[in-house]
Amino acid sequence: MLKGKVAVITGGTRGIGNAIAKKYAENGANLAIIATKDNEKAQAAIEELKKNGTDVKLYLCDIKNADQVTSVSEEILADFGGVDIVVNNAGITRDNLLPGLSIADIDDVIDINLKGTMYVTRSFIRNFIKRKGGNIINISSVVGLMGNKGQANYAASKAGIVGFTKTVAKEYGRKNIRCNAIAPGYIATEMTAQLSEAQTEELKKQLPLARLGKPEDIAELALFLASDRSSYITGEVIKVDGGMYV
């Protein structure tokens, strides 16, 4: 479905980002993976992705740093000759009730989740215009749609991604550039692994499907949105949440 296309994926060495990277590589995409660290886990993830026979390269970048994003985007475009798909997946949480959130807790989450998404997208827009088409997929969250106690900073950052997605879709649709967002619910990743067994069971009770999602559930939708099968879809925010927010 993506044979010969080039995809940039932020946070692509673990969790949802890595599941999307695997699905893209299996479907023929060449990958530029952006991560903050080059460690054993990251290298293992890259080597695993390469087994599909496509070109996979790791780039280190702190996406909340606009200058670094500009630099790494130029490097990616030089290495691959162009980019077809950008997946803004990288994100963090710093949870607490509002009075307990430090300034750093607020700034870090907004800077990485929201501003990082904006910086990365902005850095590839001219490439898309030059190529007369492109595809942007932003990972938001169901929390950005419904709010959640103890996550004011996270919810705000993810709600911002929703507004940003719709704006980019309106600004660049006539240039054949599509922009959509995925809003995951509770997905079994390193982030949710921090919850206790009792907390996890309580969460399941709140879900119509009575289970946490898998990273692959998000990856399947990300593949569809990246492919020509979704060519008339833009500006959408699609929930993958087991019915959490109906």
Task: Summarize the entry for a quick read.
The chain has 246 residues and is an alpha/beta fold. The protein has eight helices and seven strands.
List keywords for this structure.
single chain, 246 residues, alpha/beta, Rossmann fold, 7-stranded parallel sheet, 8 helices
CATH architecture: 3-Layer(aba) Sandwich
Largest sheet: 7 strands, parallel
DSSP summary, beta strand count: 7
Strand content: 15-25%
What's the CATH first level? Alpha Beta
EC number: 1.1.1.100
Organism: Butyrivibrio hungatei
Subunit structure: Homotetramer.
Function: Catalyzes the NADPH-dependent reduction of beta-ketoacyl-ACP substrates to beta-hydroxyacyl-ACP products, the first reductive step in the elongation cycle of fatty acid biosynthesis.
Could you please describe the fold and organization of this structure?
With 246 residues, the chain is α/β, with parallel strands linked by helices. It has a single domain, classed as Rossmann fold, CATH 3.40.50. The protein is 46% helix and 15% strand. The protein contains eight helices and seven strands. It has a seven-stranded parallel beta sheet, with helices on both faces. Helix 2 links the parallel strand 2 and strand 3 (56-60). Helix 1 crosses helix 8 (215-226). The longest helix has 29 residues, at 103-131. The model has no long low-confidence stretch (mean pLDDT 94). NADP(+) binds at residues 11-14, 89, 154-158, 187.
